[in-house]
Design goal:
- Belongs to the LysR transcriptional regulatory family.
- Helices cover 39% and strands 22% of the residues.
- The protein is of the alpha/beta class.
- It has three domains: 3-86, Arc Repressor Mutant, subunit A, CATH 1.10.10; 92-162 and 278-299, D-Maltodextrin-Binding Protein, domain 2 (3-Layer(aba) Sandwich), CATH 3.40.190.10; 171-269, Periplasmic binding protein-like II (D-Maltodextrin-Binding Protein, domain 2, 3-Layer(aba) Sandwich).
- The strands form four sheets. The protein has a five-stranded mixed sheet, with helices on both faces. Strands 10-7-11 form a three-stranded antiparallel sheet.
- α1 (3-15) crosses α3, α1 (3-15) crosses α4 (59-86) and α5 (102-116) packs across α10 (285-295).
- The chain is rod-shaped, with a radius of gyration of 32 Å.
Length: 311
């Protein structure tokens, strides 16, 4: 007895006719009748009573029909579940990320991912850049999202990780509103050399602090830097007039009325957001779909028309 025989039997039982069942199954009657006869022979019982108007189920046939429907429904469900798992439509995805990437990059990407894969359970690990890297290396996370250091600055990511850049944006000066009126529409960081520069916590690998230091050094000075944990804390302290900062331009999305975000007058390297994964691991279907969406994400003009550089 095989599943094909059971499917044929169920259709014949539902149609109460070999002729109608054959049409529904897109078969001719002889092979269908042969399969039914083989099923009865293997079971050693009569399942169908044939007559001129069609067929009727015997007591054994009625009993088999009940069990066959349950068995076939279970097989269909298992087949669908396996297929959906293999396609990455169910399962689990764990993403480690630096909090500053959440608003501008991660949130829009996860919105698209969830719309495309609503039955995948997404788990998060929020940490510093070093912690994100270690979560990926230790397989606590499938993927990590971090800011890369400026070119030629900071430690490399190591041969065990694949790194894919998914977003680029310019740096911008983040100033208290009271100070902004004195520095112009394009900010020369050298004019802020006597200010305290607020920066998210330093990291051995990646992070935003190397970008701040690099931008100031390219402007000819070594900044006085005070570290805090999060970008949101930096913005709050700038609003209080306790310092200035250099951050990705998307910080405009969390800036308050007391904070002004302006483009820099000197060209400095853009900030690159990257997705990390273990090179040795074959990516799961869930990971593959996340990477497809991440690498297809457009890179908008995050400064917007109000802050566009003059051409």
């Amino acid at each position: 007895m095989d599943l094909r025989q059971l499917r044929y039997f169920v259709v014949v039982a539902e149609e109460r006719s070999v002729t109608r069942a054959a049409a529904r199954l897109h078969l001719t009657q002889p092979p269908l009748s042969a399969q039914l006869a083989r099923l009865e022979h293997e079971l050693g019982v009569t399942l169908l009573v044939r007559h001129r108007r069609g067929v009727d189920l015997t007591e054994a046939g009625t009993h088999l029909l009940e069990h066959a429907r349950r068995l076939l429904a279970g097989m269909d469900a298992a087949t669908d579940s396996v297929r959906r798992l293999g396609e990455g439509r169910v399962g689990r995805l764990t993403v480690a990320f630096v909090s500053a990437t959440a608003g501008a990059v991660l949130a829009p990407l996860l919105r698209r991912y969830h719309a495309d894969r609503p039955d995948v359970a997404i788990h998060f690990l929020e940490d510093r850049a070093d912690g994100v890297v270690e979560h990926v290396r230790a397989r606590r996370a499938d993927l990590g999202m971090v800011y890369l250091p400026p070119p030629g600055v900071g430690a490399g990511h190591g041969a065990d990780l694949d790194v894919a850049v998914v977003h680029r944006e310019p740096l911008a000066a983040v100033l208290p509103a009271a100070l902004a009126s004195s520095v112009g529409d394009l900010v020369d960081l050298a004019a802020l050399a006597d200010q305290v520069f607020l920066s998210p916590a330093p990291a051995t690998w990646g992070g935003l602090r190397p970008h701040l230091l690099n931008a100031c050094r390219l402007s000819g000075f070594e900044p006085s830097v005070q570290s805090v944990e999060l970008v949101s804390t930096v913005v709050a302290l700038v609003a209080a007039g306790l310092g200035v900062s250099v951050l990705p331009a998307s910080v405009t999305g969390v800036a308050s009325a007391e904070v002004v975000v302006r483009p820099l007058s000197r060209h400095v390297p853009v900030v690159e957001t990257a997705v990390l994964r273990r090179r040795a691991d074959r990516p799961s279907p869930q990971v593959q779909q996340f990477l497809r969406l991440a690498l297809a994400t457009p890179e908008p003009d995050v400064l917007g028309p109000a802050h566009a550089r003059p051409r």
